[in-house]
Specification:
- With 249 residues, the protein is of the alpha/beta class.
- Helix content is 36%, strand content 16%.
- Helix 4 packs across helix 6 (142-154) and helix 7 packs across helix 9 (231-241).
- It is built from 9 helices and 9 strands.
- Bound molecules: adenine.
- Adenine binds next to strand 5.
Length: 249
């Protein structure tokens, strides 16, 4: 899968994604991250990419032409017109389902805004889909684009090794992940839950499922409305809600 990031700060993207799992996936050509400098597509001799907003007001607005020309040059180069995701706090809030859906694409363009935003005409011409990474305002779209690239890349086959597998983790079944422990068995007088040392696979699975349910109920009860629950899960949640089972962490 290839990500094409339209940005005024290309080194932020390349530097931010060249280590760890995403760096390895790039080296192995499972994904490609191509940071395109919008400034290279300005026709003005001062290489301006922004101007004052019509109607007045604070800040500057990114001009349509360099963005549209950068996109056209890309389309010409790759011989197709990929989807464009515009990173903005005004977008739909990004989540795991969207990450999985985007991972089906072969090419994806991420447009990073700066200043007070982007001339609306560029957004219309590129037919953008808007995505937010949460209800807070950042100084630009580069960090959000990196968040999206990381989450989407994990869903591309080959990015994770078997050991890093995304099979069971937070948001599978729309539940949060269970707590994890590793050696030593006792740390600061705190012991590892006994069931995890028992070697009894079925009991371990049951314990983990219950801990996932407890965590989700406590921290993100909103997720339970769309979670994949069976009748044992529902029974367990009801007993938690009724205070029958103590929530020992
Ligand atoms: N640009 C600035 N803030 C943002 C956010 N929260 N999500 C996506 N893009 C942004």
């Amino acid at each position: 899968m290839r990500f094409h990031v339209l940005t005024l700060f290309p080194e932020m993207i390349t530097d931010g994604l060249n280590t760890s799992i995403i760096g390895r996936a790039q080296n192995e050509k499972i994904i490609e991250v191509d940071a395109i400098d919008i400034r290279d597509y300005t026709r003005d001799k001062h290489r301006h990419v922004d101007d004052y907003p019509y109607g007045g007001g604070a800040g500057m607005v990114m001009q349509a032409a360099p963005i549209c020309e950068a996109y056209s040059a890309l389309c010409e180069k790759i011989g197709k017109k990929p989807r464009v995701i515009y990173m903005t706090p005004q977008g739909h809030v990004f989540n795991q389902d969207i990450a999985k859906e985007l991972a089906q694409e072969e090419d994806l363009v991420l447009l990073c805004g700066h200043y007070e935003g982007v001339d609306e005409r560029a957004l219309e011409l590129l037919n953008v889909e808007s995505l937010s990474i949460g209800d807070y305002v950042l100084t630009g779209g580069e960090l959000p684009a990196m968040v999206v690239i990381d989450a989407v890349s994990r869903m591309v086959p080959g990015t994770l090794t078997n050991e890093e597998s995304a099979d069971f983790e937070s948001f599978e079944d729309n539940l949060l992940e269970y707590p994890q422990y590793t050696r030593p068995e006792i740390y600061e007088n705190m012991t590892v839950p006994e069931v995890l040392l028992s070697g009894h696979h079925a009991n371990i699975m049951k314990w983990r499922r219950q801990k996932s349910l407890e965590r989700t109920l406590e921290r993100r009860p909103d997720l339970l409305e769309t979670a994949n629950l069976d009748k044992n899960d529902i029974k367990y949640l009801n007993s938690l809600k009724n205070g029958i089972i103590s929530n020992d962490k």
